[in-house]
Specification:
By secondary structure, the protein is of the alpha+beta class. It contains 26 helices and 17 strands. The protein has three domains: about 200 residues, Aldehyde Ferredoxin Oxidoreductase,  A, domain 1; about 180 residues, Aldehyde Ferredoxin Oxidoreductase Protein, subunit A, domain 2 (Orthogonal Bundle); about 180 residues, Aldehyde Ferredoxin Oxidoreductase Protein, subunit A, domain 3. Bound molecules: iron/sulfur cluster.
């Protein structure tokens, strides 16, 4: 018995790749209740066990696969697991999450959390089946793309129902923005370069298979809430549209709003028709698919059968972020070319946001004469040149030629290129900014500037509340107005809430698209699954604690106030909406709401004490 009434399996699996040993530990109840799961529990473990002198590629860095209590249960829209490690892109806290079936299967195999340390002597895979762990020789799979290596591993293990998380060549080659794929390279824990951490450990894949059922504390209440959510998802017009169009649905409207970046975050215009759904995206859309028991099913299947951009039939198509970062942000307007680029990124295991951001940066450097065809190996790396973009993706994944420089990410590449290049690298803490422009929503400024994991879009953007009309009265936020006042505070509250939702194991789209209608219903579902008795206030407090433990990791690893900044372009050059980010009012308000010292940006002793983090207060302030 784990001591948990529901949701948690109650076990942590620890792997030492250097010694080829493993150990099972009970999941402490206090850790679960205080940090929930996902990047909460993962964050606390990383804070406690990875000291500042360990760099991202050192064997002592931990690679943590983490689930939340709703994963592996029939909770609607909860098919995501999280990966945590020190990021090779930022040098600070890194996390990423992926949809699919892997997280549910890890729990069925008997574990909530998988903590991987060390470095294998030769390419290795792990196979975890119903509590048992096998270290396998991954030499035959090393060098294969993520889809092929998953298929071969399943065949060799003789079970097509196995779920696999693995890396492609980009992770093996330590590309600093490589991700970790699952579901035959259709889903990816993309951000922060955690696939490169996996590559540095010579770990090609983690296969999981299990037969246990995750207990639910209050079955009757759980059934009632789940049925209501599923009914709402099936009847609500907006959710039905999202179900049909997936995230590409947002591209057209967000482009018009000026939120979607184009031509490396400049004000240059293009015709968005070729990339929009409905619109040019329809030419590639051939079906839909779901993550584990998700009633929305927003995943797009795409097909390009013929021509230069053909790829394997029925793999997954580009999401909004990819359409934006490899499409409009690189000046490319052909959905087929973007779909091809997307598939290559999936096969090699590259984060499409950082890949698009880094190539767009290089395109601007090329057009400004900071780099030439001599640097790029003859490639005319101009905006809109889809073929050059596709070629560069391959060069990055294999670190060929100029791709070796771009494989370092835009911040490091800019330093290598020199001159004014740093002005065109659009990142926060080295992590390229996702495709939502903080020049169009006021909470975006402090959110991105202070983001613990850099330029992320899934950690509490205020755009849905500020611009898209999503009420947040459940979180105590008023109807927004146009003034900057209150937006720093709102960013803090929405981030805290998002940290709870993500750590519990929900897909971000459940909250963004109001699939549970009100925040209160998430908490009810959480309580029904776990048997706990949380209120929204408790959930926000847990979210705040989770944000602060990750922030404390950054502080311990050298982050300072100077790292809480935005690229000059976003502060000084007007975007397509005709605005710049104004941090003057929002940043101070954000620090105050957070209880972070505005000079050093460290969480204050009082704030840490209030969150029950006295040990962290001692670390940071004595
Ligand atoms: S909403 Fe989409 S990404 Fe999220 S769990 Fe459902 S199918 Fe997966």
């Amino acid at each position: 018995m784990s001591g948990f009434r529901g949701g948690y399996v109650g076990k942590i699996l620890r792997i030492d790749l250097t010694r080829r040993k493993y150990l099972t530990q009970p999941l402490p109840a206090e850790l679960a209740y205080n940090y929930i799961g996902g990047y909460g529990i993962g964050g606390r473990i990383l804070y406690d066990e990875v000291p500042p002198w360990v760099s991202a590629f050192d064997p002592e860095n931990l690679l943590i696969f983490s689930t939340g209590p709703v994963n592996g249960t029939p909770t609607p829209v909860a098919g995501r697991h999280t990966v945590v490690a020190k990021s090779p892109l930022s040098g600070f806290f890194g996390d990423a999450n992926a949809g699919g079936f892997w997280g549910a299967e890890l729990k069925a195999a008997g574990y909530d959390i998988l903590v991987i340390a060390g470095r294998a002597e030769k390419p290795t895979y792990l196979f975890i089946r119903d509590g048992e762990v096998k270290f396998g020789d991954a030499t035959p799979y090393w060098g294969l793309d993520a889809r092929e290596s998953e298929r071969r591993l399943k065949k060799d293990l003789g079970d097509t129902e196995i779920q696999v998380s693995n890396i492609g060549q980009a992770g093996e080659n330590l590309v600093r923005f490589a991700g970790i794929l699952t579901d035959e390279a259709n889903r990816i824990a993309a951000r922060c370069g955690l696939g490169a951490v996996m590559g540095s450990k010579r770990l090609k894949a983690v296969a999981v298979r299990g037969s246990s059922r995750v207990p639910i504390a209050n079955e009757e209440e759980f059934r009632k809430i789940s049925q209501e959510v599923i009914k709402f998802v099936k009847e609500d017009k907006n959710l039905q549209m999202f179900s049909k169009g997936g995230t590409p649905l947002y591209f057209g409207p967000l482009w018009q709003l000026g939120d979607t970046p184009g031509f490396n975050w400049t004000a240059r215009q293009l015709n968005p028709e070729g990339l929009s759904w409905p619109g040019g995206y329809e030419a590639i859309l051939s079906g839909t698919r779901s993550c584990y028991l998700c009633p929305i099913g927003c995943r797009r299947i795409s097909t390009v059968k013929d021509g230069a951009y053909a790829f394997e039939a029925s793999v997954e198509g580009p999401e909004y972020e990819t359409v934006s970062m490899l499409g409009s942000n690189c000046g490319v307007t052909d959905a087929k070319a973007v779909a091809k680029a997307n598939d290559l990124c999936n096969l090699y295991g590259l984060d499409t946001i950082s890949t698009g951001g880094t190539i767009a940066f290089a395109m601007e450097c090329f057009e400004r004469g900071l780099i030439t065809k001599e640097d790029t190996g003859g490639l005319e790396l101009t905006f809109g040149n889809a073929d050059a973009m596709i070629k560069m993706i391959e060069m990055i994944a294999f670190r060929h030629g100029f791709g070796d420089i771009l494989a370092e990410g835009s911040r490091r590449a800019a330093r290598i290129i020199g001159g004014s290049a740093e002005e065109y690298a659009i990142h926060v803490k080295g992590v390229e900014i996702a495709a939502h422009d903080p020049r169009v929503f006021q909470g975006g400024g402090p959110h991105y500037a202070c983001a613990i994991t850099g330029g992320r879009h899934t950690e509490g953007l205020t755009i849905d509340w500020e611009i898209l009309g999503r009420p947040r009265d459940g979180l105590g936020l008023p109807k927004p107005d146009k003034s900057p006042k209150g937006k720093g505070y709102a960013a803090k509250i929405i981030e805290d809430w998002t940290a709870f939702i993500a750590s519990a194991g929900w897909c971000w789209f459940a909250d963004l698209n109001a699939a549970y209608q009100q925040e209160e219903n998430f908490v009810k579902a959480f309580n029904a699954v776990t048997g706990l008795n949380f209120t929204i206030k408790d959930a926000l407090l847990a979210g705040e604690r989770i944000i602060n433990i990750r922030k404390a990791f950054n502080v311990k690893h050298g982050a300072s106030r100077a790292d809480d900044k935005l690229p000059k372009r976003l502060l000084e050059e007007k975007g397509r909406a005709g605005t710049v980010v104004n941090l003057a009012e929002t940043l101070g308000e954000y620090y105050e709401a957070r209880g972070w010292d505005p000079q050093s940006s460290k969480p204050t002793r009082e704030k840490l004490t209030q969150l029950g983090l006295q040990d962290v207060a001692k670390d940071l302030w004595s």
